[in-house]
Amino acid sequence: MKKTVDISLPVGPVHPLFKEPCRIKCETRGEYVLSAEVELGYVKKGIERIMRGRPWQEVMFLAERVCGICSVIHNYTFIEAVEKISGIIPPERAAYLRVIVNELDRMQSHLLANYSYCYTIEHETLAMYVLNLRETVMDQLELITGARVTCAYIIPGGVRWDLPDDRAESLKSALDHIDSELTRFVRIFETGPFIALRSKGIGILTKEAAEAAYAVGPTARASGISVDCRSDHPTYQALGFSPVVRHEGDNYARIMARFDEVFQSVNLIRSALLKMQPGPVRGGGVIQAGSIQYRMEAPRGELLYDLVTDEYGRILEIAIQTPSIMNIQVCAHEMLTDAESAADITSIFISSDPCIACTER
Amino acid sequence: MTSIIWYIREFLRPAWISRFLTAKTEPLVTPPYFRDFPVTTENECTQCLACMMICPAPEAIIVVKREGVWRPEITKGHCIRCGLCVEACPEDVLASGRILATKKEEKLLLSGTYHISINPKTCMGCGNCSVVCPVNREIDPSLRSSGTSRSNEVIMRVDTGQNKILHEEKCTGCKTCEEHCPNNAIRVARVVEATEGGKL
């Protein structure tokens, strides 16, 4: 039977609401979205090919540049993968410092994602509040590592340098500031009737659909799937980590799951600062030959590094699987399908926090 | 209605009002701890090439002789401001942000060993690597014009149409040969270890 379609509506690749170029092709009947497809391929870098044949001190920086928003987790995962190959165990203080920097990075990534969503539903005031709060997190990242985005803080056998007490105090006061300010912003988000109109019951992803399409990260956790790679990480286990899960599965749940995870990150950093004992931050050790598949939880979901090294620690083969590709897929095929209004296309897409630079590498 | 009350409350906060009335953009100041492009200090460079060994960006740092003195020079368009050269320099010639101070305080150290490998299938014996190698040129000045050398002390030389490695242990891992090889046939494996407290 021939399907009658009113209009094929393209959104993007260049769109004022998208952080990165990507095209959504929607088949619509009036305002009703019948189906959607996401077209990628605008920012391909070929970074895995550049990584081959290089030692860790070069690949570490390339790994960070896979994604500008969540650069620390790429550094973290790559270094822990080569450490696992070589049997290097970092000192305890370094393990906690890694968690602190990683959670700061997760906070800024989630705040940026939520800024982007608020901007998409045209609540610019709240968007700017959240973006302003993100600067506090970025300042702390810069204070600890020396750079805002590509921090290059985690190296095999430990971290680049220690966190002295004065910087730890500054971090603690910044965390208090973030906690109190974000509580206020979350209340604005929860109680805003216009926000609820654009968010609650929009872009629903059921638990069954999320499981079938292998959704990851906050997108899956907002649909009631308790999946988080941090649960398997020894340092996070020592900090008593348990994933944030919500059950609504709509735009509102995904944004609130991210806000909840920012609070969770604040608490993780606080407990890491409490548990951290003075000691060395570098244990030494050289990278050896081997192969590994290593996964960790990026702000957007499960990140997998599959790599092979040679006897001098150079990377022979590397494949990176980033979380966004799963979420973009599930967004196009489950959330966007049957959307009631064409105006919700962008907000549903942004609520799944797509990172195109990660996806295309 | 509730949202209007929320907005009124939001805008009637004393902090909001005072900031609204005294709105002023703060001048952009680079914090002193920002990891900027490395700058050279007063210390004397010994041409150990440790900075070139560790540098992850292509041709970002190069040690050159200017007016009879060896100095590291940074190409700002290539430098990614990672600060590894500051950590690797044993003579504290380079400084960036607070890395130099932290390095001295915590006795941070990046040390490396080097292994040269040549792919015989792609090496065409042009001798570019032997000519550009800074260590080779120090040992045998005749290598400045030709890839062949009579000296047995050089790191590598062209012998019967193929590049041969003689003394791998003299390599400083500066990557100059890698950058000048037209076929990417020569690779230097730089095995770097990061330690603390001065222990190797």
TrEMBL record, chain A:
Please give the cofactor(s) recorded in the UniProt entry for this protein: Fe cation; Ni(2+)
Q: Does the keyword Iron apply?
A: yes
UniProt GO MF annotations: NAD binding; nickel cation binding; oxidoreductase activity, acting on NAD(P)H; quinone binding
Listed transmembrane segments: none
Would the keyword Plastid turn up in this protein's UniProt record?
no
Instruction: Note the superkingdom of the native organism.
Output: Archaea
Where, by residue number, does Ni(2+) bind? C67, C70, C355
- Boundaries of every NADH-quinone oxidoreductase subunit D domain copy: 124-282, 286-361
Q: Where does Mg(2+) bind?
A: E48, I320
List positions binding Fe cation. C70, C358
What keywords sit in the KW lines?
Iron, Magnesium, Metal-binding, Nickel, Oxidoreductase
Name of the protein in its database record: NADH-quinone oxidoreductase subunit D domain-containing protein
Automatic annotation (TrEMBL), chain B:
SUPFAM superfamilies xref list: 4Fe-4S ferredoxins (SSF54862)
- List, for all copies, the residue spans of the domain called 4Fe-4S ferredoxin-type: 36-66, 70-99, 114-144, 162-191
The UniProt keyword set, sorted, is: 4Fe-4S, Iron, Iron-sulfur, Metal-binding
Under the heading PROSITE patterns, the entry gives: 4FE4S_FER_1, 4FE4S_FER_2
The record's section on InterPro entries has:
4Fe4S_Fe-S-bd (IPR017896), 4Fe4S_Fe_S_CS (IPR017900), PSI_iron-sulfur_center (IPR050157)
GO MF terms, alphabetically ordered: 4 iron, 4 sulfur cluster binding; metal ion binding; oxidoreductase activity
Q: Protein name, please? A: 4Fe-4S ferredoxin
From which organism does this entry originate? Methanocalculus chunghsingensis
